[in-house]
Amino acid sequence: MTEALKQPTLVIPQLIIGLGNPEPKYDQTRHNIGFAAIDTLSRAWQIPLAENRKFQGEFGEGIALSGCKIRLLKPLTYMNRSGQSVQSVTNWYKLPPESVLVIYDDLDLPLGKTRLRLSGSAGGHNGVKSLISHLGTQNFPRLRIGIGKPKSATNHDDSTISYVLGRFSAAENKLMSVVLDFLVSCVELSLKQGVEKAMNRCNSWTGDIGEPE
Question: Distance between CA atoms of 90 and 134, rounded to whole angstroms?
């Protein structure tokens, strides 16, 4: 049976993390789209988030619409120390790294594009670098949300930094609202059928919002 073949490699998230920075001045910035994703999942699944000092973040656990038990986390350690918060949760619940789904912004993806992968390098993202360092592996799934990049900018120059830490325009906010709605269905599919199955839907999305099959 196909189930016997798929079972050993089925990756089902148990902890979903959104990366961002905690101060009010970073609210709604491009770099904090991971926080916005967790807030969207929290509302969709009616899982309230509350500050948890032990986990150094805003944390909640409950049942997703797919019927799966899930934990949500927004690290409050600042981006480049996100791994501290994540490691405290994985240690407490004894979660393997592959059960940790991380959602974050990506300069190298066009605005609104989504990419789901089972593993990979940090790609220059300081939050992901911290996770890899603290989890001791890069074998954890990640969902990247494209924020685009300013024209004629190189990575880490002043214009790029100000762009990343800037806010979306009204038109961009409208698009990101659609993307975040889609993200919920994508994550729910990964909970029901595994990350690999959800990759096909998430990575080929062209803007339609529909129920996962």
Answer: 10
